[in-house]
Structures are given as C-alpha cells and as structure tokens.
Design goal:
The chain is mostly beta strands. The protein contains 1 helix and 8 strands. It has one domain. It comes from Bdellovibrio bacteriovorus.
Length: 130
C-alpha cells in the first residue's frame, strides 16, 4: 500500500511539472490582403475620413487586429491591414471580414489611398475631400 501511494504521489508531481512547463500559445501578427475597399463620398476638411475594407481570412485562426495608416505626404496615404493568428487547432474554412478603417482628418483636395497587401501588391483608390 505504501508503494502504491508513493507511485501515485510521483505520478501526480510529474504531471504537475509537465503542465507547468507548457507556455501559453503566442499570437503572431501578419499583414493580410484585402479584396475590396468602399470609399464613401461627401467628406470635407472638418470631418474624419473613413473607408470600409473587406477580404477573406484563410482559416478560423485569423482575427482582425488593426489597420496601420502611414501618411506619406498631405495627399498620399498607405494603409496596411494587420491580423493576429493564433496557433493550434483551426477551422479550415474561409472567413469573410469587413472592417471600417478610420484615417483621420484630411486637407481639401484629391487624396491617393494605397492599400498594401502582404505579398507586395496593392489596391489603390482615390478620395476627394471638399
């Protein structure tokens, strides 16, 4: 009986050590491509400019994170869409997404919006601010 209790105690301590050493899965951020952009009209220099982007995630492990907006100059802007990817078991289905991206206040004039994909390609749209 003492041997059985000793073996049981050893097994419990080893299993607790195994559980304690497993790190939490780390999410990775990746740049994703977008399929389309809706650019509404009617913006003026006092309003916040926004666009709506849409695309398809490769599987269920992808989740929208943010859009990084870089203002190259007053009338040129680059937008990169970022998603987080969690490791582990994923649903292997295509997941559509649609997100509003706020760009801030723009000066009056014609603006060029370049939406960069992760593979070096881009989608370019123009926007007129009155």
């Amino acid at each position: 009986m003492k041997i059985a209790n000793l073996i049981l105690a050893a097994m419990v301590s080893f299993s607790l050590n195994a559980l304690a050493e497993q790190p939490a899965p780390v999410e990775k951020e990746v740049q994703i491509g977008i399929n389309g952009v809706y650019v509404p009209g009617g913006f003026d220099s006092a309003s916040d400019v926004f666009v709506v982007v849409n695309g398809i995630f490769q599987n269920g492990c992808y989740k929208w994170k943010r859009a990084d907006v870089t203002h190259i100059d007053t009338y040129s802007h680059e937008i990169k869409s970022i998603a987080s990817v969690s490791p582990g078991m994923c649903l292997m289905v295509l997941i559509p997404f649609q997100k509003e991206v706020r760009l801030g206040k723009f000066a009056a004039g014609k603006h060029v919006l370049r939406f960069e994909n992760g593979d070096g390609t881009y989608l370019e749209k123009s926007l007129i601010v009155e």
